[in-house]
Each structure stands twice: as C-alpha cells, then as structure tokens.
Amino acid sequence: MRQPKINRHKIMSTTIATIVSAEAKARLTQVVNNYAPPESEKYQALNEVKESIIELRKRKASYQTIRAILHENAGLEVSHQTIARYCREVLDSARPKKPRRPNTPTEAQPAAIQTELAARSTASTPRSRGPRNADSKNP
Prior knowledge:
The chain is an all-alpha fold.
C-alpha cells in the first residue's frame, strides 16, 4: 500500500528554525556584518611600505623605479605592474577625482569662439557608415 507523500521541505524548515536560537542568529549576524576579506599577500607587503610609495609617487618616480628601490632596500620582489595596480586601487581611492571640464562653451570665452563652435555643430552632417571611396570627379 502507498504511503502519503510528506513535504520534506516544510518539515526541515520548521526543524531548523527551532534548532538555531535567537542568540545564535544574533551572533551570526554580528560576525557577518563585521567580516572583511583578508588582504592579498602582495598588498600586505606593499601596505608595510605604503608611506614610501606615496612619497616616491609625489616625487614623480616611475613604477619601475619604485620596484627597483623596494627590491634593493626592502627586499620586496614585486612587479611594476603590481605596484601600478596597488597605486590605482589602494592609494588613488583615497584621493578625490578631479572633475572633468565641460564640453559646452563657457561665458568667459569670447563671442567669436562661441559662434564658431555653434556654426560647426550645426553645419556638420553625420557621415554615412561604410567605406569612404575616392571621388572620381576630383583628380
């Protein structure tokens, strides 16, 4: 004789809910909120000499030069690409980005330049797609 089907998902969810206490859930939530992934080893080494890298970049030292200085004086084996990536990802994130210049003419520009820019934008017609063949009428 067939037995009736039991919804196992329903049984499991009620069992789990009673096993995990409210106190354990609170601890888990706190641990999850405070979790930070570990830094990669290459960045850990560079973080130890972070101030030196900042000072060298202020003095316009190239990434290759910084790599050589770190290798000779601190014994760090790291590529100049890794130093460049570190500077972009870690050091530049602390600096605010400079705003871009607007493409529109400003009021400080002379009126002649503004009219010339306006004439260029209205006079230009969009080019058609495809190859640009030479005109046989113009030798």
